[in-house]
């Protein structure tokens, strides 16, 4: 496969400590905006890694849905990831903006947002997504496509007379409260830049790592 032997030159544009702001959330917000403006497809997609009951890592993509004291995403609390997070809140999340030669790696703990926060976000979702949240027991097996479509139709029928679809109790947000955030910028000769923020009490320590 050609892609396995490709060695792209990531250019020489540097990532300098002097260009990085003291608060990594602000730095992240700037990079996310850059990714949006660059035209990255789904710039808010992150690969979320969790640890299951057997201590094994599992990963999947979720979308960043809010940025405040942490990185928020929404999902089914009874899904495979939800069960993993019930037992072990430690997570990692990776944003790969490859066309920009940029990557951000977050490590921290995921905690559920408040029910009110979940409901507020759920209310902004398209009705079809809201119905699907009732229809799908995320991560559980189902015998066929037709069977899950039947479940969707049943849920649609259930809420047909209602102006608003309520939030299912099993659906909501998590906030990843980070302890470490790494900003990576590809450079020529694999001499990449890596700047890491590590939580240090109320502030952040900043270090450069070898590529
Ligand atoms: C681009 C993209 C965005 C996704 N966003 C979400 C999301 O925000 N929430 C979610 O629960 N699943 C999302 N998914 C589906 C998940 O990757 C995954 O299939 C699902 O959450 C079940 O994961 P689990 O069985 O590990 O719990 C997304 C998938 C892709 C490819």
UniProtKB/TrEMBL annotation:
One GO biological process term: pyridoxine biosynthetic process
Annotated keywords: Flavoprotein, FMN, Oxidoreductase
Domain named Pyridoxine 5'-phosphate oxidase dimerisation C-terminal: residues: 171-211
Domain Pyridoxamine 5'-phosphate oxidase N-terminal: 40-156
Pfam families: PNP_phzG_C, PNPOx_N
Cofactor needs: FMN
InterPro entries with a match to the protein in the record: Pyridox_Oxase (IPR000659), Pyridox_Oxase_N (IPR011576), Pyridoxamine_oxidase_dimer_C (IPR019576), Split_barrel_FMN-bd (IPR012349)
Protein name, UniProt field: Unannotated protein
